[in-house]
Design a protein that fits this description.
The structure holds 2 protein chains of 2 kinds. Chain A is α/β, with parallel strands linked by helices. Chain A contains 10 helices and 8 strands. In chain A, a hairpin with a 2-residue loop joins strand 1 and strand 2. The relative contact order of chain A is 0.15. In chain B, strands 3-2-1-4-5 form a 5-stranded mixed β-sheet. In chain B, a hairpin with a 2-residue loop joins strand 2 and strand 3. Classes of the chains: A alpha/beta, B alpha+beta.
């Protein structure tokens, strides 16, 4: 019998964010430049499990992925039962900075996907000094809605089933079946109202069209990578966003959709490695300076 | 249009061969109107089986929800690896290739089942399920 123990460790952080105690689960692997990874709405750190197990990355990066409160193995805060969960731009930003502070990360690189890709733009505009590089996957300052989020959380419709069914079309066809369906499993398991609550940031509070013009990529490099099959954050949405950010580097990824790191990790790696190489070179140059 | 009609006609047999997919739809009882180039086709589902498929128009026949596209868009959806925008029913609605009308409740309670059934023709051309 073949047994394999992954080099990934998981721990819990207990900290205060925006006046509330939170118990946050994070996983990490590797040594070197810290690389913080942000999962998509209604999902969790498992989306990054292949990256955490990729020696070509972990031999020079300390890869860290954490579950937002309510997600994965992070708990909802006390009193969640009495209010509707809604992620805001401010709360999302404060959560990311608080986790980076709690782990005493020195100007980490950060990569976020979907809502994580959107918040990357806010971090680039408002907190560039905190990061050595920012990577937005499926990232745009605004996207046209394509369904009514009310379907995501109602007692007469199975939340997991409808969340997974809605996002299933955002995955590119033709990728490895096991990876595509594991990506769906994360949505099938999401807690009630969590995906919808994340989309409050995406749809209502997080319109960054007025914010991105403040981004100065000379203070922090910005890389935007979008899969060609994503019809939520279309390649054109990313390209429009980047056109307003001098110095932003855009890549449209073939045979990938909205979840590149989990739906087809091998295909994604081909696009990610050159970006990580640029971050390595930038780090070396700043150390020499 | 001929290619569309011929392909749609194979749908009952394709679903019959998939017991687990039928099981997933065991609580799906609905009548779907599928339109291609304005030609109507009525699909009656009972307990996950495609019980009846008839070309319309059929006088005073009601339906729960309708999926309206042109035949070329349906055929693009049924390519083994569809190109971006034609690979998913909701992608097709966002880009204006497909209109969904009627009662969304039976669709949303069985969205993946409906998507998977209507993607079955991809397998005829050797595509992945």
């Amino acid at each position: 019998m073949s047994v394999e123990l992954e080099p990934v460790t998981g721990r819990y952080l207990n900290l205060e964010i925006a006046g509330e105690r939170q118990r946050i689960y994070f996983e990490e692997a590797g040594e070197g430049i810290p690389l913080v990874c942000l999962h998509t709405a209604g999902a969790d750190t498992r989306q990054f499990r292949t990256l955490l197990n990729e020696p070509d990355i972990t031999n020079s990066f300390r890869v860290i992925a954490f579950d937002l409160p309510y997600h994965g193995k992070s708990s909802p805060p006390a009193g969640y039962e009495n209010r509707e969960y809604r992620l805001t731009t401010e709360l999302y930003t404060r959560t990311i900075l608080a986790v980076c502070d709690a782990l005493t990360l020195d100007r980490p690189a950060l990569m976020g996907c979907s809502i994580g890709g959107r918040i990357v733009l806010n971090l680039a505009a408002s907190h560039p000094q905190r990061f050595r590089a920012l990577i937005g996957l499926q990232s745009a300052d605004f996207q046209t809605p394509w369904y009514d989020t009310d379907w995501l959380h109602r007692a007469d419709v199975h939340g997991g089933e409808v969340c997974a069914a809605l996002i299933s079309g955002l995955i590119a066809p033709g990728g490895p079946a096991a990876d595509r369906h594991e990506t769906l499993w994360h949505y099938l398991q999401s807690g009630p109202g969590v995906f919808k609550g994340d989309l409050y940031f995406y749809r209502v509070d997080g319109d960054l069209r007025e914010v991105v013009s403040r981004i100065d990529t000379s203070r922090c490099p910005l890389f935007l990578l979008t899969g060609e099959y994503d019809f939520s954050c279309e390649p054109g949405d990313t390209e429009r966003t980047a056109s307003r950010i001098p110095g932003a580097q855009v890549t449209i990824m073939e045979r990938l959709g909205h979840f590149p790191m989990s739906e087809n990790p091998e295909q994604f790696k081909a696009y990610l490695m050159p970006v990580l190489q640029q971050i390595r070179v930038g780090t070396r140059k700043s150390q020499q300076a | 249009m001929n290619g569309f009609q011929e392909t749609l006609g194979k749908l009952p047999a394709l679903l019959d061969e998939r017991a687990f997919l039928q099981w997933r739809g065991r609580r799906f009882d609905a009548e779907i109107l599928i339109e291609a180039d304005h030609a109507p086709f009525h699909l009656r589902f009972r307990e996950g089986r495609l019980e009846d498929l008839q070309q319309g128009p059929i006088l005073m026949r009601s339906w729960d929800f309708a999926l309206r596209a042109d035949a070329a868009s349906w055929l693009a959806h049924w390519q083994p690896v569809p190109r971006p925008g034609f690979h998913d029913l909701l992608a097709m609605t966002k880009f204006g290739y497909l209109r969904i009308e009627g009662d969304f409740y039976p669709l949303m309670t069985h969205l993946q089942f409906v998507k998977d059934v209507l993607a079955l023709p991809r397998e005829i051309a050797g595509g992945a399920p």
